[in-house]
């Protein structure tokens, strides 16, 4: 006889059947059969309940899956329709010429909004059909309508803003081109006893730096370098005023023009134009080939350097910035030049240029670099300093305009 199940053994013992090898009496046997019958009935009921539970769960899961699938399809349809509506604005912007006037811009936006409204109707129709099939209320459609109308208004504003930015960008490009015309080219400017090279790099579309080289009667040569406070289009306008004042002074006082007279004229022009809201530091120098001298006057600008026989020193000259006062006066200083001398003018955008650790380039570093390359010629000196500044900055953008002028005496 196989081993009896422990549960059955316990049940029989409760009925008083201890010896399984001997059959029980009739009454005990009837009780055992009744107990076994009850057990089978409970097992059958439990199996039936479990089966019904599984059937119900399966039905509910199937319904939930269908609902989720329907919601997924509805959302996919709405997202696709939104993308189609957004493409309306993109198509209008990409297929139509760029607006050149407010009237044309308004017409473009009107067309885009009309097409968007048509696409909105298609979206709402699709959403209404989906909502009806899924039993959703009309509040869903109303929310979609409100959100899409808000989106349309935002897109219209985006079109206006984009057009305005495009127009401003064009104006800045024109201003930048005009300012580039105010400074000489980066070619070396050769004169009878002098070679000059310069570099101008604005920090923004337009800059507040400016430099110039002009011929005067008697083979004299004028160089000017200036730096307006700040940078951008406002500063660029002031540099234009300074350039105009310099040209006016050269035209009417060319033979008698002095550096102090030039600074006074430029000071009056900037004082009237900027109303003390902008100032310009400036250095003006006139080279005389006959006497081999340079006469210099300074209006609050960094002192230039002169390199001679391996040593470098500053050329100090005092004076208030242009535009600070309507009746400012300036003093001139004359320096005797020798063959092989090199001169360097610069704006503070060079010495204050920072690296990624926000450490400035400094006058000390510029002076040492100038001393190292002073005998290599103006073009090489300029290029070496420009490269050193770019390498020092690394990936950091310019915080201020960078301008330098180099002259070598022959």
From TrEMBL:
Residues 191-409 form the PPM-type phosphatase domain. The keyword Hydrolase applies. Keywords: Hydrolase. It comes from the Bacteria. GO terms for molecular function: phosphatase activity. The keyword Hydrolase applies. Pfam families: SpoIIE. This is Serine phosphatase RsbU, regulator of sigma subunit. It comes from Chondromyces apiculatus DSM 436.
